[in-house]
Design goal:
89 residues, single chain, mainly alpha, elongated, 69% helix, 4 helices
Length: 89
């Protein structure tokens, strides 16, 4: 599998994870007569966000490079052809 595909699947899994846990949070008290799921919605969303951040750095770098023209490997001086050192030659 390509890294882009793996990153996309990580995002999809995180969305499903958050969706299922939020639904469970809403329906557990109804089904089991007042018992609560031990997670808050903020904790559920944080866990999904953490999963996305950890599993998708390749997808983010591809997106930043293609859409915004930002590359993590080059400095501003290298990208516009000027000297990064600032010397007067």
């Amino acid at each position: 599998m390509k890294a882009k595909d793996v990153s996309l699947w990580a995002i999809v899994i995180a969305i499903v994870w958050v969706g299922l846990l939020v639904l469970a949070k809403g329906f557990v008290p109804v089904i089991w007569s007042g018992k609560a799921l031990g997670l808050t919605v903020q904790e559920i969303m944080l866990s999904g966000g953490f999963f996305v951040v950890v599993c998708t750095p390749v997808y983010r770098s591809i997106w930043l490079d293609k859409k915004l023209g930002v590359s993590s490997g080059e400095t501003k001086g290298e990208s516009d052809g000027t000297k990064a050192e600032g010397g007067n030659e």
